[in-house]
Amino acid sequence: MRCLRYEIGQGDALIWQRQPRELRGWRYFALFATPVACGMAYAATEEFLALGARLTAAAGAGIAVFLLAQVLFQLADRRAARRQVPTQQEATLEIWGDHLCETRGGITRNFTPELNRQVVLTPHHLFIEDAGGLLILPLTAFEDRPDMERFAAHWDGLARDAQP
């Protein structure tokens, strides 16, 4: 058994929230809000503005909606990060041959290859997501970057072998 000790905080969880992923729900709707706002502003000003002013109004409406969507995305990401890691916490990860056992904030969670959804390696973090939750491992938990990469490759291999 190998044991890793590290600290994680909301900033670590926020990095996970900002990873590229498929748009769903209201985020998917927000993707179309900008061109819809442009079209609505253009159509609404048809009777009383010249073409140049209509185009300017449409562009302004599009920019305003785009910026509002970005602010909402940022707020949602921060709220989700706070839910994942409410405060700066010390964590311990026990690495057993066939599973991982993380203790953080007084709660112990197990991660098994069979339930693994994805292993995501970033420059300073390793994220392991399974059906039960998310494991956030900062680079500081490992000896160095190659150690983190080897661990990620090993765990990803175990997860692939466990899939039917």
UniProtKB/TrEMBL annotation:
Taxonomic classification: Bacteria, Pseudomonadati, Pseudomonadota, Alphaproteobacteria, Rhodobacterales
Name of the protein described by the UniProt record: YcxB-like protein
Presence of keyword Transmembrane: yes
Keywords: Membrane, Transmembrane, Transmembrane helix
Regions that span the bilayer: 26-45, 51-73
Species in which this protein is naturally found: Gemmobacter aquatilis
